[in-house]
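pasting for the record
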Amino acid sequence: VLDLSAFYLDTLKDRLYTEPASTAKRRCAQSALYDILGTLVKALAPILVVTADEVWQLMRGAGWVSEPSVHLAPWPRLPDVDAGESEKGRWAAFRSMRDVVMKALEEQRSQGLIGSPLEARVTLLVNDERLRQLCEAHRETLAEAFVVSSVEVRANGAQASSPDERLPGLVGVTVERAPGGKCQRCWKHLMSVGSNAAHPHLCERCVRAVSNG
């Protein structure tokens, strides 16, 4: 439950709210949420008999399911999907980073440096080359996972200790106010806000989104 509400749904907000409807990122997120909803409703049906069926009727009205009742639907079968060890390892590292970053964000919020995480730019200090390359290759994904405006990665070989024993290559996290203006569509603070005269209050990504419908 915590993984779903405190992590997964939190990281999906940006792509669901701001990506164009036809993009693969948004459609993949919607497909995953559809599978999660169907599985949870079926799994909870024996316990929440009436409530689960009420949800099912809403799903049926939307044309998402065909069975007249959740209690007549087949038991959910999880898809036979294996993310692979490298993918699992990558996300284990990202989750460990997120724990450290969330703590740093909360400290800066309590001191009044930022109001919300989207006002922040996070810099990851690493002393491991493989980890640095991994973070550099997935900076946008990390920004989504941390729910911040941007992520920077900086090599730091002078410091040996890590704030998280699960990720020894991460030796520090710094949080500062993100430069640039606030996009009125995605609420991120980015340097590209105002660069398009036709959309002076939007960032470059959101300009592309509204231009493409």
